[in-house]
Amino acid sequence: MAQRLVSVWQPFFLASESQGAAIDAATELEDLGYSRIWFSGGFGENVAPRFREILDGTTRIGVATGILSIWHSSPPEAAAFAKDAEQAHPGRFLLGLGASHAVVVESGGTDYRKPYSRMVQYLDGLDAAGLPPERRILAALGPRMLELSRDRSTGAHPYFVPAEHTAEARAAIGPDRLLAPEVAVVLDADPTTARATARQYTSGYLALPNYTNNLRRFGWTDEDFADGGSDRLVDALIPWGSVEKVVAGLEKHYQAGADEVAIQVLNGGDDTAFPADAFRALAAALI
Predict the structure, then answer these.
(1) 243-276: per-residue pLDDT in tens?
(2) What are the residue boundaries of the Luciferase-like domain, all occurrences included (predicted)?
(3) Which CATH class name applies to 5-182+260-286?
């Protein structure tokens, strides 16, 4: 396993209308010692300029698409962006790719069929465009996609998973591939308000079959998925409480085999605000 890394996954970096505010936040995370910033690639036809803006505005921290939808950006476009970023900032940009979700893809008029085959074809296109496997990572959940991430990328970036999935993913991809799960957290010691914040986040994801089907493999049921998630499921997915309790929840993923945990601080649904105090507190405890 590689050296343990602590990263950030935060929608603020794409949602913020202020380039300056995004760069200021990224610079602080860099100074705090975080290894990488992940945020959504959005659903435009090209990689969002914000990824390059943050690379240009910082000096060391990595930046990754978490994730770029393979239905919305072509392999030549994605490869061109990644190769240009690599030339300007060697080793700092990672192209995270995912198959997205039927409801998202079909809302744009595209038929969501055979996502695994689509991913294989996309990777073929990146190969043809000259982007090496070590500069890309897959948002893998199930066994086939995990194996594909092992064979044709630098590793796996699972999202919305319990620590049990992290252990399964490590077994599937082997010891030499990067495993970087996203883990959302709530820094709030009150069980009622902490779980309410968590459910603002979980309710949307529990409506997506890709995630619920994955969770079923670990014994979760429709009863757990109802009303934003049972207490037991929310607690398994979203570490909440004091800094110490949240860190203990994150440690479960490292103990299960994660090289890097991409921490998403839940912010009450306000993606335009950056939770700086929370990331400062977590950095002091983890880095």
Answers:
(1) 999 999 999 999 999 999 999 999 998 999 999 9
(2) 20-259
(3) alpha beta
